Each structure stands twice: as structure tokens, then as C-alpha cells.
Amino acid sequence: MFLYGVVNASPDSLNTDSIATTPDAATRRGEYLLNNGCQGIDLGGQGSTDNATVVPWTEEWERLADIVRALAEFGVPLSIDSWKPEVTRLALENGATVINAADGMQTEEMWQVAADFDAPIVLPFLSGPNPRQMELVRADPIGVMVEFFAEQLRIAERFGLRDNCILDPGTGFAPSNWPWEERYHYQKRVYSNLDELRRFGLPLYIALPWKETAQHNELLEIVLTQGPEYGRAHYPAKIRRVEAELGLA
Fold first, then answer.
1. What are the structural domains of the chain?
2. Please, how many CA atoms are within 13 Å of residue 180, restricted to the half-sphere of its CB?
3. Contact in structure between 156 and 165 (CB atoms under 8 Å)
4. Which of 15, 97, 101, 160 is deepest in the core (most CB within 10 A)?
């Protein structure tokens, strides 16, 4: 599995170990990630959780500008995690190579940015227009995801970008105030049925569980045994260790 390591330039990200708000801190974080099992870096400048303050795109880019350039120096795939097309375009102009589309590519503007750069696209399922406006999925989530991806890939085809897409079930996002126990059962259902998303003939990308609980560890093992092509990790050494324990390394 190709592993992206997380660098967050947003000061209100939930995982404080991933926060790096200066180029030097981001470089140290990048070195840690790449020395512990990652092959790429995923960079974001806007938190998507309830405790994160949504800032204008200009402020998001101000957080990212020098850090994008610093991380690009590693010469590895560098994804920009954003739902704002202005930020995404500037990041690609300054060294990012992959779009991690936090809006699920639900605007024409994001598709046009991707087309202008012919960039790979991590395309997540979202039950709303962006991570901050999601609703609970009350139907079978796999069926809802299949419908979502079918429609989004029709748009991708129109832009000549279908083969650039990497499908993400969007389990790194959650509607506000969703109790963990419900989220756990939802994720277990999704992770146990990832093969249903293989019908599109595209690689899969998962934001891997990182918290240290028995349920999170169970979910991580389920994901890894499903063999997604890409993962996003906060603690890559743990991912590589679990892969080895499961005989997947």
C-alpha cells in the first residue's frame, strides 16, 4: 500500500502530532513520516472537524504557501487536502502534485483545476457539499457510495479525468455530533465491503484509523486486509507493523 503521511498546517486539527505551522516544523514532520514508512505527504491548511474555524481561502493559502514549497523539496508525491479551488490551484502551481478533494469534487471549479493540471484526484464520498455540511447516511452506505461515485465519474469523464480518480469512501469525515458507536458500526460496514467499490476499476484510498482503542485497531485491520492501493496515515510505523503482523508486508 502506498502511504501518504499527514501534515496539517491548520492549528485546530484534532491530531496535534500532525500540526506543523512553519516550514521548518513541516520539514521535520515530513522527515519523520518518510523515515517511518510513508512514500508521499498529504498537506492540509483547513480543518474539517466541528472544532475547526473555517477561514477564507486567502488565509488558508497563507498558512500553506511556504510549507507547500518546503515539502515539495522532498521530491515525493504531495497532495493538497482542500475544498477550495483557489487554494488547490495555488498549491499545484507551487509544488503539490495530487488533489485530495475535500469537497468530493462537487464543483465545476475543482474539476477545472484538476483538468488544467491533469492531476491525480483523491475523490471522497461526501453526504453533503463539503466536510462541514454532511448529513447522516441512513440507507445502506455502500449503495449510496456507488450512486455518488457513478455520478461523479460521469463528470470526470466529461473533463477527461476518469482515469485520474482514486476512490475514497470518505470515512475520515463525519456529520457533526455523530456518536462514535454509530460511526464505528458505519465504518465497519464500509470497510468490510470495500470490494463493492472495485466495480469502477479504480484504485482505493482510505484515511486510516489512528486513535488507540480496540475498535480503531479492529477497523484498521479490516481495512488493511481489504488491500486498498493507498492509505493516509498519522503514524506510519504502526501501519507498517500491523501490515507485517497480518502477513501483508
1. 2-245 (3.20.20.20)
2. 7
3. yes
4. 101
